[in-house]
């Protein structure tokens, strides 16, 4: 977004969202309120809010949240005004539809990010918007995307997002009809108490929703068939669209998570802090969909609280070590690299209090007298270091340093991750991912071994592993 | 980008780019200068600058160009300042590299758009940036992307872009080394005079470049091997990286296009207008790389000049029509749909003076007494209507209306396009594409026929056709 989209308005906002002023003073006050709330959350996690990595976190979070919900301060009218162009339809003496009268127009694959109103985590949206022009006029194509962005940049739920985009475009450009199809993906909601039981959390929760107005109001209208065929290669069709009216429970994983025994003891100051954030973003904090949001967000956050994991972990790791050269163990010292690839992890970026998640690849040589480490112990170590306020570089180092003494010191760890903060914040780099390496012992000097290991990751990736 | 990136500075800019002030007054003056220049270009194309579709084009172009070159007004120092975090390396008693001392960090697949300094058209960049931390500190990951963005938002050439990002990061965060690999794609440079001779212009011109500093300065350093293995799935390796020092001619298609006979007669007012745009963007318009740019840009633009194509076309089309029921012609009226899919086209968006290009799919029924139209004539019709200042909706309609009377009136046309204006402007929706339909005669009412045709497009797409 350019600063062209960052205009503040003093008028009222459409779609029933209550107005909050956007004067510099109010803006500043809202930002400070969010910063204060974030400090309370960090304290609730047992963090030292003055340590260097966290010192500016409240400011960064406030900035990111304000930016990520800038849709509350934007008006559709200002976007579409002046963007309607006269465009002839088919000659009167011919039968048919085209141009500014009847020819379907679709903008496909618009990448958006929105915030889930149930848990405050961002969710990803692939948006397809179409309309049928009428009145001999068409709208500038980028406006469809800009209007979708206005509603994505609010606390949302997929069906409501689709409906709001649809109705705003219908009102704003008054065409024969508007169609919106969204493919939404929500990060899974792992829980440190249950993660070791879950079979697979890959890929996130997915839902397809649609909304139609005018000629698209009837789900069985022929024009929907045209629409679906033109987005067909994306694996969407009328059959796998979520039916309107199904309860939200199908969507946000936090809503289907069983209430943990912990919930009762959630720090009320943290819950109040999240309510204060909602208010400062311009949300109606008594809206019923938001009633449980602070609790759910705090519960998610508490997965990452600062407890002395290292102590816990050392106990568990010590239990896992096999004694030196025990009977029946094969000791490998002929330079065989042991690898464990694609161990999933979840973590929370300490700079933005936003999730980052991905996979960890571990390789090692066994020194004489050591035994291989089982996959489940490696996965536990990964989870232990993941469930913290973290940075990826530190996570990588901690995993390597923890494993190293158990094997004799020759370890390589690669972490590949998607950072929500790279995507949902201003910079919005959707496809980007981050790789970090830690090399210990001979891996730091032996390029041939490193290459062998990195090649095995590349092979696993290309085979879809 | 949020407005956080839109800060204007009064200090000097790094990397030798001369400063231009960014006070509101100067900003306004530069914008007006660009608007005036765009008006001259439109007049040079034979356009009526007061027609509704073009009335705001000078303003939109000025806004887009200023935004697309905002990197001239940004400083790397302001981006990385305060974004360096202390992060421990490996314990002194251990051998290895990790965290804030030696562990390679790569952010991969950063989507960028830049403007080609040789022809002023935007080019697409997939950027991979890595660095090796030193001094027990790491930089916030999004800063790598933000710094790359600063240099992408200038008039560029791939190798220079890579070098500037690399050296700015090396100076800004002072790590052990920085590596930058760019995969760049430049739109082909079709020429209305030669397009009918070209066998294929699909996919654009591509180049891979790299730049390294510190530990990456030596192309044969082991750390480059680590880097390349971690971006391996993108089809890049050390062998297919463009060697530094090769002439630009390999890159921008405009540089290898033969000088057309027309070049001598290029409207000097248009060339002067482009020089004025370069100056208003803050560029050093006497920089030698820019010397031929105005000529090349005007030459490209003149492909889209408003001439009475319709007259030309009618001549050509009439010649192509076979007489009613000629001997040897098979007349099909048993509802067989004739299809011609994936005819490439190039056009120029009249709202932004930026290319849009893609494919046209044509389907029709033959009425009795008409003969099928050959692919080359359909392709000619597509090119004729493409090479104009256009909007996709009108292009779709014009193709349908031109073909319709040649076949008896039952025609369907689908245009699928990527719009540079959707990508290189503020909204920056990289993967998006636009589909438009025109339906004439029975296709406007017969959904089964429409579906049959749309299904054939979907099949051709999924089989990579």
Keywords, separated by commas or semicolons:
homodimer, 465 residues, alpha+beta, GTP Cyclohydrolase I, domain 2, 5-stranded mixed beta sheet, 15 helices, 13 strands, globular, disordered N terminus, GTP cyclohydrolase 1 (chains A, B)
Largest sheet of chain A: 5 strands, mixed
Number of helices of chain A: 15
CATH architecture of the largest domain in chain A: 2-Layer Sandwich
Oligomeric state of the chains present here: homodimer
N-to-C terminal Cα separation of chain A, in Å? 36 Å
Characterize the overall form of chain A.
Answer: globular
Instruction: Tell me the radius of gyration of chain A.
Output: 26 Å
Q: What is the CATH class designation of the largest domain in chain A? A: Alpha Beta
Lateral arrangement of strands in the main beta sheet of chain A:
6-3-4-7-8
Which spans of chain A have pLDDT < 50 for at least 5 consecutive residues? Answer: 1-21, 314-333
- Biggest protein-protein interface? A-B, 97 and 97 residues
CATH fold-level assignment of the largest domain in chain A: GTP Cyclohydrolase I, domain 2
Mean pLDDT of chain A: 83
CATH superfamily of the largest domain in chain A: GTP cyclohydrolase I, C-terminal domain/NADPH-dependent 7-cyano-7-deazaguanine reductase, N-terminal domain
- What is the domain total for the residues of chain A? 3
Helix and strand string of chain A, N-terminal first? HHHHEEEEEHEHEEHHHHHEEHEHEHEH
Q: Would you tell me the structural class of the helices and strands of chain A?
A: alpha+beta
Would you count the extended β strands of chain A for me?
13
């Amino acid at each position: 977004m350019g600063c062209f989209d960052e205009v503040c308005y003093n008028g009222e906002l459409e779609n029933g969202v209550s107005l909050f002023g956007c004067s510099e003073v109010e803006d500043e006050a809202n930002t400070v309120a969010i910063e204060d709330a974030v400090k309370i959350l960090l304290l609730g996690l047992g963090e030292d809010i003055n340590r260097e990595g966290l010192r500016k976190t409240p400011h960064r979070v406030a900035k990111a949240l304000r930016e990520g919900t800038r849709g509350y301060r934007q008006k559709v009218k200002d976007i579409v005004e002046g963007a309607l162009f006269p465009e002839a339809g088919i000659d009167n003496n011919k039968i048919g539809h085209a141009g500014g009268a009847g020819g379907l127009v679709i903008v496909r694959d618009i990448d958006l990010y929105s915030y889930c109103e149930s848990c405050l985590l961002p969710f990803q949206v692939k948006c397809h918007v179409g309309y049928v022009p009428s009145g001999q006029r068409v709208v500038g194509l980028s406006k469809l995307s800009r209007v979708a962005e206005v509603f994505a940049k609010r606390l949302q739920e997929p069906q409501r997002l689709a409906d709001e985009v649809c109705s705003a475009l219908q009102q704003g450009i008054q065409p024969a009809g508007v169609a919106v199809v969204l493919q939404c993906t929500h990060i899974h909601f792992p829980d440190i108490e249950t993660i070791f039981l879950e079979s697979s959390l890959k890929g996130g929760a997915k839902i397809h929703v649609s909304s139609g107005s005018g000629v698209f109001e009837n789900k069985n209208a022929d024009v929907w068939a045209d629409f679906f065929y033109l987005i067909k290669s994306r694996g969407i069709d009328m059959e796998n669209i979520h039916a309107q009216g199904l309860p939200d429970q199908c969507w946000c994983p936090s809503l289907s998570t069983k209430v943990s025994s912990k919930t009762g003891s959630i720090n009320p100051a943290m819950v109040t802090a999240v309510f204060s954030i909602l208010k400062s973003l311009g949300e109606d904090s008594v809206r019923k969909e938001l009633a449980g949001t602070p609790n759910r967000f705090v519960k998610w956050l508490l997965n990452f609280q600062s407890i002395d994991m290292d102590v816990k972990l050392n106990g568990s790791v010590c239990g896992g070590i096999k004694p030196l050269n025990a009977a029946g163990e094969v000791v490998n010292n002929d330079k065989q690299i042991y690898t464990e690839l694609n161990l999933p992890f979840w973590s929370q970026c300490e700079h933005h209090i936003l999730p980052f998640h991905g996979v960890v690849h571990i390789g090692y040589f066994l020194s004489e007298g050591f035994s291989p480490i089982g996959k489940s112990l490696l996965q536990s170590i990964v989870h232990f270091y993941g469930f913290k306020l973290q940075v990826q570089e530190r996570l990588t180092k901690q995993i390597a340093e923890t494993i190293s003494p158990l094997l004799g010191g020759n370890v390589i760890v690669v972490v590949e991750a998607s950072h929500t903060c790279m995507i949902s914040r201003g910079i919005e780099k959707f496809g980007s991912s981050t790789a970090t390496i830690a090399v210990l012992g001979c891996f730091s000097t032996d390029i041939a071994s490193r290459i062998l290991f990195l090649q095995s990751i590349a092979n696993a990736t290309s085979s879809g592993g």
